[in-house]
Design goal:
Elements (H helix, E strand, L loop, with lengths): L2 E6 L8 E6 L2 E6 L8 E4 L5 E3 L1 E6 L18 H12 L4 H17 L2 E9 L6 H13 L4 E7 L10 H11 L3 E2 L9 H18 L3 E5 L10 H10 L6 E5 L8 H14 L2 E4 L1 H7 L15 H6 L4 E3 L16 H11 L5 H10 L2 H7 L14 E4 L4 H7 L3 E6 L2 E5 L5 E3 L6 E3 L4
Parallel strand pairs: 1-4, 6-7, 7-8, 8-9, 10-11, 11-12, 12-13
Antiparallel strand pairs: 1-2, 2-3, 5-14, 14-15, 15-16, 17-18
The structure holds 5-methylcytosine and fe (ii) ion.
The site of fe (ii) ion has 6 residues, from loops.
Length: about 425
Amino acid sequence: MDLIVRRAAVAGIEEPVDIGIRDGRIVRIAPSIAETAATEVHAAGRLVTPSLVEPHIHLDAVLTVGQPRYNQTGSLFEGIEIWGERVRTLTHDDVRRRATQAIRWMLAHGVTHIRTHVDVCDPTLTAARALLEVRQAWRGVVDIQMVAFPQQGIYSFPDGESLMVRALDLGVDVVGGIPHYEWTREYGERDVKTALRLASEYGRLADLHCDETDDDQSRFLELVAAETIRLGLQGRVTASHTTAMHSYNNAYAYRLIRWIRNAGVHVVTNPLDNAVLQGRFDAYPIRRGFTRVKELLASGINVCIGHDSIMDPWYPLGVGDPIQACFVMVHYGHMSGYEEFQTLLDMVTTRAAASLGLTDYGLAEGRAAHLVVFDATTPMDVIRTIAPRLAVISHGRLVARTTPARSEVLLGAAPEVVTFQP
Ligand code: 17E
Ligand code: FE2
């Protein structure tokens, strides 16, 4: 064996197990592995899951908060304006350096697979070219999918459609869209139709920003579902954000949810960004800007959680940790039931992997060895304490580790360690 994780708590298995890894693969999961390995990681009863999969982030915009100015209204729309200004000053090195930094943060938090959107509303496609290079540089450690994302619209930006095609021809993997932001309802419909036609013609997956607004009249998701079925793209299409679903009437939402399920459309919710971006035009009571996560899950739709932003015009915070997004989801999504903590972890691991179309992934013998060891024993405690990632394994290799902080109270004769355990 090359690497053995000892005494791992694994979902669905009663007693801790050893996980044996050779040539980048999980070759054995057993109560005890007699062999030894060059590298041994002692989980000592702590939770081990498949590594984290980030299904939605904008790596071209990370770490630009305040450039050229801060978002004063906090709205999505001011964020898009500020980003539009920043795009004009992008350079290859600027994008490469910031994205690389953010990927290192994410890897330290256990992320080994990323889907990034890249804004293609730029005649020079500077960000796309830089991220193609970043994708190549990280291959085999952090595997990256890129989405051609028309931030200003396919039909509301000069030559938007040909920029999408050029990006796909350059090697950008996935087709994006932004129907709710197009100038008119009709342009929005064309946006969806073009995105899914390109996905079909190029044989690519699609992931559209869809209905990211509090406008209950924004109803492009139904068209995404219909076109997905018409073109036979079931299972290959993701709708991101879909926050307007929060505001639809229940009769319409019920019908729509059945439609999404029939189309096999994956949904990505982005709790960090949408908790601050949405509801900005409301007087009290102020709406939550979330899609209907519990109802979507209950009807059998694959829902996953994205981080969306790290320190950019839309969201000033973030350290690249998907577990922070889970933590917010607990609160904004009313997901505090005991079983729901496992679901939340699934939403940043196996469910996210399904949206990305990953097949060689998962905690099972024969799969590629992508694992994370948390400094906690249960999903509830992972999320409660935002537990440090003691070890991160990608393609069978130990690629990151964290030493937990140590807190002490200094009131007695000797320092008293605080463990945050009852
Ligand atoms: N662009 C967009 O349209 N929506 C977002 N939430 C972000 C970028 C982060
Ligand atoms: Fe996004």
